[in-house]
Design a protein that fits this description.
This protein is of the alpha+beta class. The protein is built from eleven helices and twelve strands. Helix 4 runs antiparallel to helix 5 and helix 5 crosses helix 7.
Length: 318
């Protein structure tokens, strides 16, 4: 897992454009750029985070044109899905002679196994791109190389997916590996759910993956002592009642699931013997040591200290 940052403002203007696309080609996708008209300066920036076959990139660039066609696919290219969220500015996409406008706050997705062009006519843009293996996802509607924006926008989870991508884009540099991984997993689960909605198993997928999304968001916020159902619902862009219904279908309540997650984390951290108890208390979302001790003993039947004392028979967590 690595976080890399490219900032073209640190190099001479004459090389900014070339270095930017060298970075894009290596980290995101092979494309053929065309130099912007007038002037040599091309201030651009890329922040990239990799997690095995998956990655996330925040890209900032001024006006320019870039295209990719099926003839440009190389054997070194991977078959990928690129889920992109436009944070600022806009883009114009052309697929099979059909042009689509993508403005700020909009999502689009591209299947790199299919031909497509990216067009840009004026203005700057800033966006976040989430990349994951195409084999994990169904093809786009009608076999096109792009999941049509209207196809994504028509789904009731569209705003939730936008919020997850926006969080990735705004926090990629500041977040730690744990939070980055949680946000990437949430976005991937949501997109997978939307992409498969017309399949026979969509109803089962919906129930299972929505619960997974809720669980991932709870994992991400587990250290927030004031985290509650209201905050969970707000962060996902869902109603409080809807989140409750999803949990009810899985036979749990918010408070019980949060307590279980916090205690499982605490037990794991205590077992490692490398962390101080006050650090574990804070990481588990407790502001008072006494409250943590009571919750831990109620959950496991023994005190936290028993986990670290070799002479005490504290059952191992499976």
């Amino acid at each position: 897992m690595t976080l890399t940052i490219f900032d073209s403002s640190t190099v001479e203007p004459a090389r900014q454009f070339d270095l930017f696309y060298e970075t894009i080609n290596r980290q995101v996708v092979r494309i053929t750029p065309q130099r912007p008209e007038g002037g040599q300066e091309f201030p651009a920036r890329v922040v990239s985070y990799r997690r095995q076959a998956r990655s996330c990139h925040v890209i900032e660039a001024p006006s320019h044109t870039a295209s990719r066609t099926v003839r440009e696919i190389r054997t070194s290219d991977s078959d990928e899905i690129h889920l992109s969220y436009m944070m600022a500015g806009d883009r114009r996409l052309r697929v099979r002679d059909r042009e689509t406008y993508i403005g700020a706050g909009h999502l689009f997705a591209i299947d790199t196994r299919k031909p497509f062009d990216l067009l840009r006519t004026s203005g700057n843009y800033r966006g976040v791109v989430l990349v994951f293996p195409a084999e994990d996802m169904p093809p786009g509607p009608s076999g096109a190389g792009i999941f049509r924006p209207e196809f994504l926008r028509s789904h009731r989870l569209y705003s939730v997916l936008c919020a997850a991508c926006a969080s990735l884009g705004s926090g990629l540099e500041r977040a730690g590996d744990f939070e980055r991984n949680m946000l990437m997993s949430v976005a991937e689960c949501l997109f997978s759910l939307i992409a498969r909605r017309d399949r026979p198993e969509a109803a089962d997928d919906w129930r299972r993956e929505m619960f997974a999304v809720i669980g991932l968001e709870m994992d991400r916020r587990i250290g927030d002592a004031g985290f509650d159902l209201e905050k969970l619902s707000h962060s996902l862009g869902l109603s409080r009642r809807y989140v409750q219904r999803v949990m009810e279908r899985h036979g749990v309540t918010f408070s019980a699931l949060l307590r279980q997650k916090r205690m499982d984390l605490a037990h794991s951290r205590l077992s490692s013997r490398r962390c101080k108890i006050d650090e574990i208390v804070a990481e588990s979302g407790y502001s008072e040591l006494s409250a943590f001790y009571r919750a831990f003993k109620r959950q496991f039947g023994y005190a936290p200290g028993a986990v670290r004392r070799p002479d005490t028979a504290a059952p191992a967590q499976v």
